[in-house]
């Protein structure tokens, strides 16, 4: 009960006490319930003695009349005070502190998509979720009837159903608005102030089912609004999330919900006693004799040529962790050499009674051989077995793309990423440096890009209406993470990666995903990049309608020239000439520019896509093609002229001429293998980026405890291992098309990732099977089934313990479990992890009983399980019955 309602309750008691003295009963012919005495509060009782003089029927005693008059006077005062308080609450513009406001999100149900559909995206887009937001005021200040708004963000690739939202909220008296990737709820006429201890329920109907703990609304914050409509941040509002429920099975590749039983069945074929593979990636040719060995104490100092100094120092540092170099005459030789007869990334390693010999076709090949030696030492400790390895990758491009824009990750985090890539012999890091949400690379001649474009907050304009920062998005709350790579940061990163034989490819996304640049330069003379008169209607998948450069605006081309000039200069300063650059080219809606007067002034026809969609698309594509050719000219002008330009597959139609010159390639993220094959047949060099197995921002499994996206399905470590890049179609690829596949690349988009630990958790251990498949892509289903146990044994026994020693926050897989003959059977996908359990429904901890498959406990539906590392880090808890 609200404390504001107490005066009215007291009033009722006062009136009843006056009209019906103690001892009387009140009944009603309309209420057949037993008669009940009405007692006034003790402080209002008459102290005079009650006599036997009872008034006649329909007659009130004088004393009671006087008491009634007194009570009514008090009642009038109370009602007046109450009315005045209500009026003050209605008229008040004071906003309560957000620490006194509390939000709770309650998921009510998921609504299935259509029974028939052509693609699972159609099913997801037409499914819905129903939930409630409950806003409670725990403070003494009422949330007023106007002068405020609540901002938030729905999970990535989800939207509010505006029509259903309005219908569900007819009585709430609040409006809903979508604003460039965010949502805003604001009171309208008739909204009643939210007083102390009162709650307001706001029904929410969203598009797409809610399935994961990163799907519900996030980033809630409150703003105040003055009479002129100016908004000021009040603060973030804490939110409590209820459980996700109402799950229904979805089409492939979404699939059924993962639980203890499905995990057990998925990994039951694993042989925990399998011999681990020799290294990761698995060498192509190995002859191992572990009955013979060389003790590290026997090894002399490393000898190499000057051009292998970094590699020589790396191997020396590695060996010195286990021994001091032997200076005696009988010391065993350790030599590093470059052999021009070998392929560039090929290496040969020999360990025998003559010593340790490592040769490579280049410094990169030698470096990869050292990583193999490092892994052998993880396994064998203070000695090396006699071994001969002849190894090289099948793909020349073994990449990872990291988005540092949605959330910023600086040099320290990126160097940790590079270290992991290098250890597993990956060689390309594509850095997404700009996005709608932020610009993350310093361009000295355009300081606005980082002074404005790298910052996020609610108030985006100053008093003069100039842009000062970008709006908050994602799960930022009222203030967003800021940050960018300085010129010095980027140069240092290039050097660090080069030493480890990793090429950093900068990605400058245009013409779409360019909102941060557009807004940062909006007030800079000569750099306007959108047409203010453009009436075209389009919306990006992330909810933006003003994020595409307009090729008709003259500010576009000096912007591009300044940016690519600066990027090229930084590469030169690092001693790493720019060989590849990526221009994005993805998710630029074909409705863009179609009704832009500036476009018409260039000689292109304005065609309304609602009137003539086919002609409108044709005009858009012509504009896009002309823009692309100008862009390539700028890239050549600002660099050596031989730079290879990468772009996502949506840009494929606009890069054919450059393809013919051998200076372009496509990063292909299409689901459809047949479509990819069709593009390969046109002669396009391609890097495969299959979302089903290569997007590490996808959730590991279909369970509400997981984080991430699920639009391309769920991707665990075994899914990545089972990826067959060359199996695009049911038929084997012809050699010509196989040769056009440069390699594969994994992607780490960061909409749902906002800490370095979380980035590592999404990336690892999935990066390990990806590195395996990038090195050894030409495998059959039979090979995969036969080799998985050896791979899993290596990961569990050596790779995961190494990651833990290095302080990497990798994801620990959840156990699987079933009941068999009344006993619990449990499994994890990797050896080296232990399972602990409880039988009372509590969460298992490192001190909980250890599961012993030889002496399992009796099965009980209350059992919960967790997998733990030897250092005590645990997985999410798993109930045996979900």
TrEMBL record:
Q: Biological process (GO) annotations?
A: carbohydrate metabolic process; glycosaminoglycan metabolic process
Q: Where is the active site?
A: 587
Q: Domain Chitobiase/beta-hexosaminidases N-terminal spans what residues? A: 99-260
Known catalytic reactions:
Hydrolysis of terminal non-reducing N-acetyl-D-hexosamine residues in N-acetyl-beta-D-hexosaminides
| Protein name as annotated | beta-N-acetylhexosaminidase
Its family remark reads: Belongs to the glycosyl hydrolase 20 family.
Q: Which GO terms describe its molecular function?
A: beta-N-acetylhexosaminidase activity; polysaccharide binding
């Amino acid at each position: 009960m609200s404390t504001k309602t107490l005066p009215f309750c007291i009033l009722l008691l006062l009136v009843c006490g006056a009209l019906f003295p103690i001892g009387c009963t009140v009944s009603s012919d309309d209420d057949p319930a037993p008669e009940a005495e009405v007692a006034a509060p003790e402080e209002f009782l008459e102290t005079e003695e009650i006599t036997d003089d009872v008034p006649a029927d329909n007659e009130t005693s004088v004393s009671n009349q006087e008491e009634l008059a007194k009570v009514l006077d008090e009642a009038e005062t109370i009602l007046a005070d109450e009315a005045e308080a209500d009026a003050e609450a209605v008229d008040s513009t004071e906003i309560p502190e957000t620490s006194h406001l509390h939000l709770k999100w309650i998921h009510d149900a998921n609504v299935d998509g259509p029974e028939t559909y052509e693609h699972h995206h159609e099913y997801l887009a037409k499914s819905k979720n129903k939930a409630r937001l409950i806003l409670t005021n725990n403070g003494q200040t009422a949330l007023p009837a106007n002068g405020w708004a609540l901002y938030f963000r729905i999970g990535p690739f989800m939207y509010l159903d505006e029509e259903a939202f309005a219908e569900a909220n007819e009585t709430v008296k609040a409006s809903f608005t979508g604003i460039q990737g965010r949502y805003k709820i604001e009171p309208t006429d008739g909204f009643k102030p939210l007083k102390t201890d009162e709650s307001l329920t706001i029904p929410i109907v969203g598009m797409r089912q809610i399935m994961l703990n990163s799907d519900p609304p996030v980033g809630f914050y409150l703003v105040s609004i003055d009479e002129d409509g100016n908004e000021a941040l009040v603060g973030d509002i804490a939110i409590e999330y209820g459980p996700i429920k109402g799950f229904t099975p979805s089409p492939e590749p979404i699939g059924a919900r993962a639980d203890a039983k499905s995990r057990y069945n998925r990994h039951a074929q694993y042989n925990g006693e399998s011999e681990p593979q020799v290294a990761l990636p698995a060498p192509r040719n190995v002859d191992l004799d572990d009955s013979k060995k060389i003790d590290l104490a026997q090894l002399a100092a490393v000898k190499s040529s000057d051009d292998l100094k970094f590699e020589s120092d790396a191997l020396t540092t590695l060996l010195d962790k286990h021994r001091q170099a032997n200076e005696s005459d009988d010391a065993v030789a350790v030599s590093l050499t470059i052999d021009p007869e070998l392929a560039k990334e090929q290496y040969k390693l020999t360990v025998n009674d003559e010593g340790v010999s490592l040769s490579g076709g280049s410094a990169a090949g030698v470096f990869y051989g050292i990583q193999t030696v490092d892994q052998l030492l993880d396994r064998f400790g203070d000695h090396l077995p006699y071994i001969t390895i002849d190894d090289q990758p099948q793909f020349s491009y073994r990449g990872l793309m990291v988005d540092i824009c949605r959330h910023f990750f600086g040099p320290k985090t990126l160097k940790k990423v590079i270290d992991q890539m290098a250890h597993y012999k990956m060689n390309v890091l594509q850095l997404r440096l700009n996005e709608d949400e932020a610009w993350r690379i310093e361009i000295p001649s355009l300081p606005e890009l980082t002074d404005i474009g790298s910052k996020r907050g609610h108030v985006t304009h100053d008093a003069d209406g100039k842009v000062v920062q970008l709006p908050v998005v994602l799960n930022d709350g009222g203030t967003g993470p800021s940050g960018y790579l300085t010129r010095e940061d980027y140069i240092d990163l290039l050097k660090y990666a080069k030493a480890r034989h990793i090429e950093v490819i900068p990605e400058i996304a245009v013409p779409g995903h360019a909102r941060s640049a557009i807004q940062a330069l909006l007030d800079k003379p000569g750099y306007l990049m959108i047409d203010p008169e453009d009436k075209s209607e389009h919306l990006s998948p992330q909810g933006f309608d003003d994020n595409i450069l307009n090729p008709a605006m003259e500010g576009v081309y000096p912007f591009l020239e300044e940016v690519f000039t600066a990027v090229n200069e930084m590469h030169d300063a690092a001693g790493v000439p720019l060989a590849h650059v990526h221009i994005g080219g993805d998710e630029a809606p074909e409705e863009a520019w179609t009704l832009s007067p500036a476009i018409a002034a260039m000689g292109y026809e304005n065609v309304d896509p609602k009137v003539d969609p086919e002609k409108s698309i044709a005009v858009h594509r012509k504009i896009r093609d002309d823009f692309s050719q100008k862009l390539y000219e700028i890239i050549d002008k600002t660099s050596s002229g031989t730079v290879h330009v990468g772009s996502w597959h949506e840009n494929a139609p606009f890069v054919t001429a450059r393809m013919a010159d051998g200076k372009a390639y496509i990063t292909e993220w299409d689901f459809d293998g047949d479509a990819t094959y069709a593009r390969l047949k046109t002669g396009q060099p391609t890097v495969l980026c299959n979302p089903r197995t290569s997007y590490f921002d996808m959730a590991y499994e279909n369970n509400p405890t997981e984080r991430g996206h699920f639009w391309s399905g769920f991707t665990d470590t075994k899914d990545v291992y089972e990826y067959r890049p060359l199996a695009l179609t049911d038929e084997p690829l012809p050699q010509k098309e196989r040769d056009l596949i440069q390699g594969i690349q994994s992607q780490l988009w960061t909409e749902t990732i906002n800490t370095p630990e979380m980035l590592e958790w999404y990336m690892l251990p999935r990066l390990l099977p990806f590195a395996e498949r990038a090195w050894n892509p030409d495998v059959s289903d039979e090979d995969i089934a036969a080799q998985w146990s050896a791979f899993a044994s290596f990961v569990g026994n050596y790779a995961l313990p190494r990651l833990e020693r290095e302080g990497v926050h990798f994801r620990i897989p959840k156990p699987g479990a079933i009941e068999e003959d009344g006993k619990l059977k449990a499994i994890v996908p990797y050896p080296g992890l232990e399972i602990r359990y409880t039988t009372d429904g509590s969460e298992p901890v490192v001190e909980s009983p250890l599961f012993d498959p030889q002496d399992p406990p009796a099965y009980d539906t209350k059992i919960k399980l967790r997998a733990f590392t030897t250092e005590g880090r645990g997985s999410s808890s798993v109930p045996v019955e979900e």
